[in-house]
Design goal:
The chain is an alpha/beta fold. The protein folds into 5 domains: 71 residues, Histidine-containing Protein, Chain: A (2-Layer Sandwich), CATH 3.30.1340; 114 residues, hypothetical protein tt1634 (3-Layer(aba) Sandwich), CATH 3.40.1520; 112 residues, hypothetical protein tt1634, CATH 3.40.1520; 114 residues, hypothetical protein tt1634, CATH 3.40.1520; 121 residues, 2-Layer Sandwich (60s Ribosomal Protein L30, Chain: A), CATH 3.30.1330. It is built from 16 helices and 28 strands. Strands 8-7-6-9-10-11 form a 6-stranded mixed β-sheet. Strand 22 and strand 23 form a beta hairpin. It starts with a helix and ends with a strand.
Length: 632
């Protein structure tokens, strides 16, 4: 009995223990499932979908690869708020860091009359001392403000050629801003004139190394006009401008409208510039032209604030007095009027004193007529020889007494005015000066009018009858870039450049074609070209790409061997990517195997972002957009 009682007690104890273990197992499983579900739900809701959760008893194990350390820490903190942080086991990994992206190097150089300043971030590989030395050479000692910073990174591709080009360009541009980036230079500058702008743009394009993206914004400011001149005449052929100046488009339009109202039906344009003597310039011009129209013939000249109105000989004095009186009262303040009514000449038997100078198309000058003294004879002859050449002047003047006191001034002014012409004649008389002839300069009448107004003064009258003819093109004039590209295409259309099969060696039959192309390029003026190589689609794409590049480079080398200056040329292979015909036929494949010459045009949309703007943000790894285009 005693044994059975002990056995029953033992079995009861064992059963209770087993039941406890079973209940504990179910409890642990419930806790694991609850913890895992709660943690997973919290992680998914917070966007940590990359994290994996495993519950092992009271432990909550986190696995997965976090994108960065901060995200990993955020996941741990989130889980610690769902379950006891002591139960969280961190087995997560972090994506290896790619390192800090290199900065985008850039520099801005500003040059004006005060000197040069340079600011930006440059690679340590750039020889900073050499850059500052070159800037000091350009601006002068102690005229350079150095605000550069350096970073210990290798220079990006294209950085050094861009910086070297910027320094070379800066020496040509006394008022400019140059922005430099790897492979790209943007230039904003001011030139002295439209002609200077064209020369600068041409030279900068020619200097640019192959592959450099160049953006040019060269401005030509309004010229300073001195004296500010307008001259309008009415004769038997109608009204015409010899000179027209205006300070704005509005002023120009007012003057031209007044002339049209006075009967002017020709074509002209006023030079817009600086130096206007009064804001009422257009009003004074309108009044002068209207008064001349009422008189019917003559000329009106404005030189700065002086107006000279010369009526035609034979104008009725009463009409002249009436119109001039109204004009004097209507003119704005500052303007002074000098009115001239010519008196008919009387025959005294001696004839009117006159000096004439005639310029022939061959450049020969004949001086004839009356000179006031021997000194003026020598001065006028020497002056003419200085203007037209010592061997081109023949003098047959004679000294006559009792000529006007300003005769020497009128003679020298007439000779200077004659130098604006290619052929013509000037006649000097006591009360007038007449110049007739032809010039290759469209602005010759305006320049001569300004000259005579300044030399002779407000009370003197003169007559201009100057025609314009376009100057003949010089025999050695370089071809324009457009014509150069067209002639290259024409040669290729007649006889294309071919190669030995499967190689980059130019076929012997294409030597003459390359000679023609070299001859054309030797007459082109600073054109930037991309020599493009193209293939058909036979073979592997990588092989075709390599072959097209080799062929383009081979053509470039052939041109160099023919002494063609190729500093502004670049060779580039396009492989099979740009067919001009189908690759399904023999004829199409033959057409696709070709060499093309395409112009590289400078970009015009210079970025407005400055170095300071760039420094304010971390550069992205995306490549810069291409701003250099090829002409089609």
């Amino acid at each position: 009995m005693h044994l059975s009682s002990l056995l029953i007690s033992g079995l009861t104890f064992v059963a209770a223990a087993a039941l406890s273990l079973v209940v504990a197992g179910f409890a642990v499983t419930g806790i694991e499932a609850g913890s895992e579900t709660a943690v997973r739900r919290a992680l998914d809701k917070a966007g940590y979908t990359w994290a994996e959760v495993t519950a092992n008893g009271l432990r909550v194990i986190l696995n997965g690869t976090a994108p960065d350390e901060a995200t990993r820490f955020g996941a741990i903190s989130l889980v610690g708020g769902v379950v006891d942080a002591a139960r969280v086991i961190d087995d997560m990994q972090v994506t290896p860091s790619k390192g800090i992206a290199p900065p985008r190097f850039s520099a801005e150089i500003l040059r004006n009359d005060s000197g040069i300043s340079i600011i930006g971030l440059i690679p340590r590989a750039t020889d900073r001392e050499t850059v500052i030395t070159e800037l000091n050479t350009i601006a002068g000692a102690d005229q350079v403000a150095d605000l550069l910073e350096t970073a210990n990174y290798s220079a990006q591709k294209g950085w050094m050629p861009a910086m070297d080009y910027a320094l070379e360009a800066l020496s040509l541009l006394p008022r400019s801003k140059i922005s430099v980036e790897a492979g790209k230079v943007s230039i904003t500058a001011i030139s002295d004139s439209v002609a200077a702008k064209e020369q600068i743009e041409k030279r900068l394009s020619r200097m640019a190394p192959a592959g450099l993206r160049l953006s040019l914004d060269i401005a030509a400011p309004r010229p300073v006009i001195a004296p500010f001149t307008l001259r309008y005449s009415i004769d038997g052929s109608g009204g015409h401008f010899d000179a027209c100046s205006a300070e704005s488009e509005l002023s120009r339009n007012r003057i031209l409208r007044a002339a049209k109202k006075a009967g002017f039906d020709g074509e002209t344009d006023c030079i817009i510039g600086m130096g206007v003597p009064s804001p009422n310039w257009a009003r004074a011009a309108e009044l002068g032209i209207a008064a001349l129209s009422e008189l019917g013939a003559g000329s009106v000249t404005l030189a700065n604030a002086d107006m000279t109105l010369v009526a035609a000989e034979g104008t009725a004095p009463a009409l002249f007095d009436h119109i001039i009186g109204e004009l004097e009262n209507a003119l704005p303040q500052v303007f002074a009027l000098h009115a001239v009514l010519p008196v008919p000449e009387t025959d005294t038997g001696g004839g009117t004193p006159e000096f004439t100078a005639t310029l022939s198309p061959e450049g020969q000058v004949q001086l004839r007529g009356r000179i006031s003294d021997e000194a003026l004879r020598q001065i006028s002859s020497s002056y003419a020889k200085a203007r037209f050449g010592s061997d081109n002047v023949h003098s047959a003047t004679r000294v006559v007494e009792d000529l006007p006191a300003d005769w020497s001034l009128r003679v020298l002014a007439g000779l200077e005015a004659l130098s604006f012409l290619q052929r013509g004649a000037v006649s000097v008389m006591p009360d007038s000066l007449s110049l007739r002839g032809m010039s290759h300069r469209e602005d010759a009448p305006a320049e001569i009018a300004k000259l005579l107004s300044a030399k002779l003064g407000e009370a003197e009258s003169y007559e201009l009858n100057i025609s314009y003819e376009q100057p003949p093109e010089p025999a050695d004039k370089p071809m324009s870039p457009d014509r150069c590209e067209a002639e290259l295409a024409a040669v290729q259309a007649d006889s294309k450049i071919t190669f030995e099969p499967g190689s980059a060696t130019v076929a012997a039959g294409s030597r003459d074609t390359l000679d023609q192309i070299a001859d054309i390029l030797s007459r082109c003026d600073g054109v930037r070209l991309e020599i493009q190589g193209h293939t058909d689609s036979q073979g592997r794409e990588e092989m075709n790409q390599s072959l097209s590049q080799s062929r383009a480079q081979s053509v470039l080398n052939e041109l160099r061997s023919r002494r063609v200056i190729t500093s502004s040329f670049t060779a580039k292979g396009y492989g099979e990517s740009t067919p001009i015909a189908t690759n399904d036929t023999q004829e199409g494949r033959e057409a696709n195997r070709r060499i093309e010459f395409r112009r590289i045009l400078p970009a015009n949309d210079a970025s407005s972002e400055t170095t300071l703007d760039a420094a304010a943000s971390v550069p992205e790894a995306a490549p810069d957009s291409e701003q250099e285009t090829s002409g089609q």
